[in-house]
Amino acid sequence: MSRIIAGAAGGLALANVPGTGTRPTTDRVKEALFSRLESYDILHDAVVLDLFAGSGALGIECASRGAARVELVELNEKAAGVCRRNADQVNTVLRRRVVQVHRTGAEGFLAKLQAGGHYNLVLMDPPYTLTDSKLALLLDLLVPVLAGGAVVVVERSSRSPQPQWPAGLECFSDRKYGETQLWFAEPAEASLQQNP
């Protein structure tokens, strides 16, 4: 069982996804990730998108730490059910509906969005089996919906190559934690001028 690390719902136990098909972010990686996001001062009042949400633990951690809205996107039926239970639990603690769950695929969800600066933070923890070309397509679909100053975090196997960043995104940092690699990107200057 995982727990929310900090914030208004800190210590709250979250349900995990039973069986296989999802890969929870380890506590070590989660703590390092949120330490970094806190240093960017990006979480307070942020609009967050958690693609391939699994149990929703990363997005729900954002809600606990002050995000204004969190959207969890998960296609797997069992995982989406766990997301809903965890979202209901944290929304009850926070006394407002911060976390919403969408049971759909990441590509279909992104393709339906209108262009505009919707998201301040995007967390992507796709299955390691997701191809590099599919990841590149998803990153390209993200560009038109990022707010100025947004941060995109991609979690992959440390054996995977760096994502193929589209013209509208620039990688500014990466960190390795054992078998896990985190990549951090932000909108490119030209992209910001097109999507104020």
What would you say this structure looks like, in words?
The chain is an alpha/beta fold and 196 residues long. The protein has one domain (2-194): 3-Layer(aba) Sandwich (Rossmann fold), CATH 3.40.50. It has 6 helices and 9 strands, in the order ββαβαβαβαβαβββα. The strands form 2 sheets. It has a 7-stranded mixed beta sheet. The radius of gyration is 15 Å and the shape is globular. Mean pLDDT is 91; it is low at 190-196. One of its GO terms (biological process) is rRNA methylation. It comes from Arthrobacter crystallopoietes BAB-32. One of its GO terms (molecular function) is methyltransferase activity.
Radius of gyration: 15 Å
- Adjacency order of strands in the biggest sheet: 5-4-3-6-7-9-8
Number of helices: 6
CATH superfamily: Vaccinia Virus protein VP39
> Which CATH architecture would you pick?
3-Layer(aba) Sandwich
Portion in beta strands:
25-35%
Largest sheet: 7 strands, mixed
CATH class: Alpha Beta
Q: Could you say which overall geometry the principal axes of the C-alpha atoms support?
A: globular
Mean pLDDT: 91
Instruction: Please give the number of β-strands.
Output: 9
- In terms of per-residue confidence, which ranges show pLDDT below 50 for 5 or more consecutive residues? 190-196
Report, as a whole number of angstroms, the end-to-end distance. Answer: 41 Å
* Series of H and E elements: EEHEHEHEHEHEEEH
| CATH fold call | Rossmann fold
Number of domains: 1
Helix content: 25-40%
Structural class: alpha/beta
